[in-house]
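Q: What does the assembly look like in three dimensions?
Context provided by user:
Components: two
Sequences:
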Amino acid sequence: MADNAAKTIDVVAAPPADSPAAPPQAEQETAPPSDAQSPTDTLPPGITADEIALYDRQIRLWGILAQEKLRTSSILLITIKALGNEIAKNLVLAGIGSLTIIDTTTVTEDDLGSQFLISQENVGQNRADAAAANLRKLNPRVPVTTLAVDPLAVDLSIFSMIIATDLSITLLNPLNAKAHFGNKPFYAAGSHGFYGFVFADLGTHTYTITRPSLNNHPTLLGPESATRTVIATSRSPRDAAGNTTETVTKREAYQPLILANTSPLPLDISANRRRLRNVSPLLPCLRALWEFETESNGLPPAHNAADLQRFTHLATDKSRDLQLPPELLQASFLRSFLQNLYCEISPVTAFLGGAVAQDVINAIGGREQPIQNMLLFDGEASKADVLALVPVVPAA
Amino acid sequence: MASQQQLTTIKVAKVLMVGAGGIGCELLKTLALSDFRDIHIIDMDTIEVSNLNRQFLFRQSHVGQSKAKVARDAVLKFKPHINITPYHANVKDPEFNVDFFKQFNVVLNGLDNLDARRHVNRLCLAAEVPLVESGTTGFLGQVTVHVKGRTECYECQPKPAPKTYPVCTITSTPSKFVHCIVWAKDLLFAKLVGDKNQENDLNVRSTDAASSSEQTEDVFERRRDEDIELYGRRIYDHVFGYNIEKALSNEETWKNSIRPKPIYSRDVLPEGLAQQNGICAADDPLLVSAMASLGMKNPQDIWSLMENSKIFLESLKLFFMKREKEIGNLTFDKDDQLAVEFVTAAANIRASSFGIPLHSLFEAKGIAGNIVHAVATTNAIIAGLIVIEAIKVLQNDTNNYRMTYCLEHPTRKMLLMPVEPFEPNKSCYVCSETPLTLEINTHRAKLRDFVEKIVKAKLGMCFPLIMHGAALLYEVGDDLDEDMVANYAANLEKVLSELPSPITSGTVVTVEDLKQELTCNFNIKHRVEFDEEKEPDGMLLSGWTQASSVEKDDNKSIGNGGTTSNASQTVPAAENNDEADNVLSGKKRKVPEVPEGAAQDCVSDITRKNKKLEMVDDDDDCLMLEGDPGICKKKKLQ
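A: Here is the predicted structure of the complete assembly.
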């Protein structure tokens, strides 16, 4: 497994940010990884005809090369509740190399009914063990192992990706820091009733996008946004109908959650009143929750007047720090958020689990734009917006 | 917001799910975990291997069993105390009538085809049950809400017709690989092993087709005691050699396009096929394989012309040796390995001839089977959104209904695009009573033409009843007596103006589908001339327009449809529609124009046939949201 993991790390973890960029011309000559359906794809040594039959519909979507990268990836999932169930199911179905689950709690009656990987007979067992048994049946090709240890004590080097769900900020921050400095892509996700978030810190991540070439001007090399740089482009020969496709290689630079949490809104939003009004009030609420937890040893606000008042103050402060219009944060929203802290409801975890797994799959495959860096889901409004929350002066 | 009231509404709700496939598995799980207690689920399909990468309620050992039943059992394992009622049946079966639909509080669609979607839409309208409709393709998907009288119905916006190609492009001037696939699948495969009585354009391409028609009839028949390899080579030389050479003799055709080169089997395979076929001992007809018998393993390889030629001959041979009983009745099926091998090889040989790049079996299978990309993640996302809308519908939370589009990747800074539902389209023939207008030659068109081309093909009715005033001209049903059946059969063959109650200009014809409880009125206008190119049916239906078809991208995943980061990013949802539609429908490409010389050729072909070849979706998880150009002009629901 260590071998596999090492191979994948090369693929997933991008070259260090400070490596000197090659001259553009040289970049163009070295063709970036070819696209999904490219006729030059050859069968990677590992994939069998049975696997092609099983994964037929998805290989048609992301290509055999991405499937091979998935096949050699090893993913660590921390905490497996309703959201963890969804993420694990999606990744195991997709055919990842291996899944390791850390969860030190035992299955209770309360878990039943919201988690499809466990049933009555699992009550009293370790939650990861109980879920793992069913995950193995879901796709016998994917080894699923469990660890009953403190996630902060785990050696991350053998994994190609870390996903943490349903944790307080007091665990998310040190985990994220550990992953970031170990050059491991990291996702955090959680849900609160009808609301949820996905945060990504992929370090320095390189990926390609293939698209029809609409005109004769290739995409320009260089910075595209505060976080994104175009590092190479190439173009396919014209087909019989005269169409060509352009393959663009881009690099995204990420920051850890602790920095994202003190960062302002992106300029294109903060400078535009209409866009500001469209920002989800979930953002100040999440920041308030995390600040509250930091101040109270990881405990969320309880349902007492003092905690609720303190939380409301924090949320108002965060909203002001973000320069959001005061009317954005409604009392009804605050109430709905507070009443359902860490509550998992199935439609929301289905959405978030799908969004996380899809981003993980694309990130491993090195294709498509990943989340940069905070996805906010509001199930009441069916909104899922992505905000790039980065410090104004990028950290070195 | 998961309030007590919400929970109560959910617990007492009775829900009908149509479809237990990609979306269905996710939906059934999410409904059960959301505490829905009474769920009915209809699906006519059985489980296949290629379902297992996303339909997570199914295991290898379930292959061949009913999706609805296995899904029910799987969900009851983790949620034992709820009621799930499975039906292994077609939703169009008569038992699922309006009364059946009326017992439900909401209907949730996870369907894979337009036909069934339209049918369910009509039953929901008739039964006045709200419908939540959905679809996915690759990373794209959508959920829409349809409540009679409040929002548009599923058919208020015309749906794109399946892609068709002009006959001449397929028979004489292919320019893309998909044209070769259509030729191999719908013409050559159908001619050699399909129904011999069906019309087939295979030989309609040469200028003197008429004079040699008698002779060409026999070419495709295997002669008595003819050696199977010699037969294969004779077919090979005829379609890839002789026919191309004959086409080349018509200089007009090639003025503006590259001349194809004839290919003969003796040049590609000078020696006979060796006896490699020892390996192939499979009893299951679907496991017989030319690749296996030739020792080729990788479906992703692109075969050389020689390899394609070997596969061509070997697969034809295997059809005659191992599956002789089926010959004459075969239709192309993407899960039939031998059929896919034959079509891949034939399409590639034709592509070589026309200088079109060759493709692997894996790619050819995707094009020939019109396979839709499908992944678990999108289905899970869409299932979550369906349940969210279903809860709003059950609470009658009208102001918060949303049509939600799941976008590809968050370059645009949003993963979802919620749009307020639109008002019903006042001219929708399904949910309003606006009459349609039909221009038709009442002295030449038969009642059968009207029934087949308009009532069934365009209106999607299954059990039509046609009336002119009080006179019943046609109906179908099990309870008709023989005289009536004979009478209606006779009417079908009559010209409209000569029916017992003549249909002429100004007549109003009423068509009803009793099962769908749908009634449409047609104002008939007599017209003599029709443009053969634009109106191949010889009639023109207006008052309801079918959107022009969007060409499916031949061999690129829709997932690659480009979004550029410098495109406008934060236009509010409603204004963003047209752009999103582009994203959602994949790339729109112009069909390359047929060279002038060839076009003249075509006209003569088309006058004979007036027929277009069709590619029809038949896979699950298919998306129905392509092209919706009118969407941004419509009024929002207040």
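Follow-up: DSSP finds 19 helices and 16 strands in chain B.
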